[in-house]
Amino acid sequence: MRNLVILGGGYGGLRMVQRLLSQNLPEHVQITLIDKNPYHCLKTEYYALVAGTISEQHIRVAFPEDPRLVKKYAVIEKIELATKSIHLENGETIAYDDLVIGLGCEDKYHNVEGAREYTYSVQSIDKVRRAYEQVNNLPAHSTVSIVGAGLSGVEVASELKESRPDLNILLFDRGDRILPMYPEKLSYYVEEWFHTHDIKIIRHSNITKVEPNLLYNHDEPIASDAIIWTAGIQANELVRNLDAEHDKSGRLIITKHHHLPGDEDVYALGDCASLPHAPSAQLAEGQAEQIVSILFKKWNNELLPETMPAIKLKGVLGSLGKKHGFGLLADRPLLGRVPRLLKSGILWMYKYHRG
């Protein structure tokens, strides 16, 4: 029996399991999925969970039930490429024949003193729970500082303000405008929404240190009752520690067939893979589709394709509370209610029409 081990039940890992089980999986192949949670979490909705506008049940998706799928719910302690084995925190060791590493990402703190210890994260469900508890227990008129004005920071700030209009929300941005990776029209629309809702944008910020309830911008202290960090990501620590080639964010360098250059049995997926696009759920799912096709060819002793098609990304959608949003579809900015409705619809389709 050949054991395919998938580390992580995120967007890419779940898509792989769905596609593998829905096709003619060879009888000699078994799938083992390892995740610390007994369900998939909709990470794109973590911002609403922090704000307390949805319940955790709302963002859970069950893993498939199938006799060909073995599920292990445990924390991974070590990935050992030399012996082709995965060591779990509970002492169990799992051997693999093919391995897909899709363990996601974690915050990148840019060597800012105290940032890891004294800020809250939105990168994992357990960290989001802690952020939710802290933020929603704050008394009226407390100050929440959000470091980083990318998509995560913008969505957390807007949802939190709509949920708790009494809070003073500060959004720290290193540049001239928020969401700098998108067209100016889109950025200015979001900035105007923030201005209308009394969210203060602090531009050209440089966070130099963090202490309990204290944020230093250009070494000037700013009192904060809660500090949420959304200022960059890097690959999971287990991935960064692997004896393999990495990019500057700790992601694994891969070939056109998505495996490690020196190991055709190990594939990197999603936030763990060095790809020419910003990490996203779409990208992870598109990559998962290609890895599945490659595995089937490999198992059937067929030649792999000389070239792989480009992964097509449809665009991005973001929320400004429950009624407004923004997006970029086919390089066309969308503003207002339409992108918010589109995002809600896509979420509904993802939860209830998978397969």
What tags apply to this protein structure?
355 residues, alpha/beta, FAD/NAD(P)-binding domain, 2 domains, 28% helix, globular
If you had to describe this structure to a student in words, what would you say it looks like?
The protein has two domains: 2-36 and 74-106 and 233-299, FAD/NAD(P)-binding domain, CATH 3.50.50.60; 109-231 and 316-352, FAD/NAD(P)-binding domain (3-Layer(bba) Sandwich). The mean pLDDT is 94. β6 (76-80) and β7 (85-88) form a beta hairpin. It has 355 residues and is α/β, with parallel strands linked by helices. It is globular, with a radius of gyration of 21 Å. It has a six-stranded mixed beta sheet with strand order 5-2-1-9-21-20, with helices on one face. The protein starts with a strand and ends with a helix. 28% of the residues lie in helices and 29% in strands. The chain is built from nine helices and 24 strands. Pfam families: Pyr_redox_2 (PF07992).
Concise synopsis of the structure shown:
With 355 residues, this protein is of the alpha/beta class. It has helices at residues 11-22, 46-51, 115-118, 125-136, 151-163, 184-196, 237-240, 281-299, 337-352; strands spanning 2-7, 29-35, 40-41, 60-61, 69-73, 76-80, 85-88, 93-95, 98-101, 105-107, 120-121, 143-147, 168-172, 199-202, 207-211, 214-217, 220-223, 226-229, 233-235, 259-260, 263-268, 315-320, 324-329, 332-336.
